[in-house]
Amino acid sequence: METLQWSLPSSFSFLVVAAAFLASAAVSSAGIADFDEHWQKRKELAEASAMASYKPDPYNVTNTFNAAVHMASTDGLRREMGERKKKRSGGPCRATNPIDKCWRCRRDWATDRQRLARCARGFGRRATGGLGGKIYVVTDPTDADVVNPRPGTLRWGAIQTGPLWITFARSMIIQLTQELLVSSDKTIDGRGAQVHIANGGGITVQFAHNVIIHGLHVHDVKHTMGGMMRDSPTHMGPRTKADGDGISLFGATDVWIDHISMSNCEDGLIDVVQSSTGVTISNCHFTNHNDVMLFGASDSYPQDQVMQITVAFNHFGRGLVQRMPRCRWGFFHVVNNDYTHWLMYAIGGSNAPTIISQGNRYIAPPNMAAKVITKHYADEGVWRNWVWHTEDDLFMNGAVFQPSGGAIPRKIKKSEWVKPKPGSYVTRLTRNSGTLSCSPGRPC
């Protein structure tokens, strides 16, 4: 297996961001009680990985993403019409977005699991997880020993070095006694079982890269108090309190979170912080939570300008209040999601994040005071110069998106700009959001 190599883009705009990224001498340890040589090395590797993942012209990524959606939608419609004509039993495969279309219609998904590594789109498209590594099967749902995890447990697989593709022998509920630390080059693949991470610690990807988290139920996550914990076969150290996020990305790069069902965690459902970048969150179903997603945790951490995230094909459902997402500093492509519920607002931000909202469906709540989708954490004279744009979104029940006046500094020629699939198509693109029921030998 070749070692991952990092290289610096030559763009001047990237160098400006990189300089800001490395300038701060202060290091936020986020759970690490002893920031020793091991963690210092992981931090340095994470910084290099973030530089390699960062795209100076992110509109090339949004353009490519939209083109893939159009292609998948056209091909899917042709296939569906052809199969109807042939009157095949069981009906056609209904994978209608480019991520699902890449793998879901194949009967051999269970014997060719690593095909999934080809399927990421958006800013997390480089995530291949455990591709090329061994298949590791979780047979033991317990988490009794976080210092010396038992082989067969999820924790044992998550901390190993090198690529590993983690699967599950059966449906299970895993109550983590502490946060689960996931190392680089891992896939956690819940397909073929109903796996719940619940009633205990959440999942943390810290100073790690190239991770896929797929097909899990994550709910009722609680804070954990920390203590001695192993994060690799050769290192353990003290951890401080974890807040109770369902999934936390801290200094993480090239991460793809797909087909996760999430609800009711003590803190956030998904937090992406501390210069994490190259992230795609797709095909997820979120319900029953207050602070759903936080992208950038501090107004005083401009290094988060490196953050680039795609949020696509998700269903924001019942019982959600706010932060879908709440953004700072970076670049966020929010595309083809179904926002059917919010109580306060859907998308918010501060510190001049770029938010490109394309082809989403927004259904406002009955409350007249909550019709506005967006919340700007700044005076109007400030946020009016930010880049918050809406294109081909569908607004229902009085929903209002307040755009800003900042110009989109794209380098793509106008003739090459690909419009998104419109919001009227979202119910088709998101109808299989959340965890799937997959059976070997049949399309998923």
Automatic annotation (TrEMBL):
EC number: 4.2.2.2
Signal peptide: 1-30
Keywords, sorted A to Z: Calcium, Glycoprotein, Lyase, Metal-binding, Signal
Pathway: Glycan metabolism; pectin degradation; 2-dehydro-3-deoxy-D-gluconate from pectin: step 2/5
Superkingdom assignment: Eukaryota
Gene3D superfamilies: Single-stranded right-handed beta-helix, Pectin lyase-like
Ranges where the Pectate lyase domain occurs: 171-368
Cofactor(s), by name: Ca(2+)
Lyase among keywords: yes
Alphabetical list of InterPro entries matching this protein: AmbAllergen, Pec_lyase, Pec_lyase_N, Pectin_lyas_fold, Pectin_lyase_fold/virulence, PEL
Catalyzed reaction equations: Eliminative cleavage of (1->4)-alpha-D-galacturonan to give oligosaccharides with 4-deoxy-alpha-D-galact-4-enuronosyl groups at their non-reducing ends
Cofactor note: Binds 1 Ca(2+) ion. Required for its activity.
Enzymatic class: lyase
Gene Ontology molecular function terms on file: metal ion binding; pectate lyase activity
Keyword match Transit peptide: no
GO biological process: pectin catabolic process
Family, similarity comment: Belongs to the polysaccharide lyase 1 family.
Protein name from the UniProt record: Pectate lyase
Originating organism: Digitaria exilis
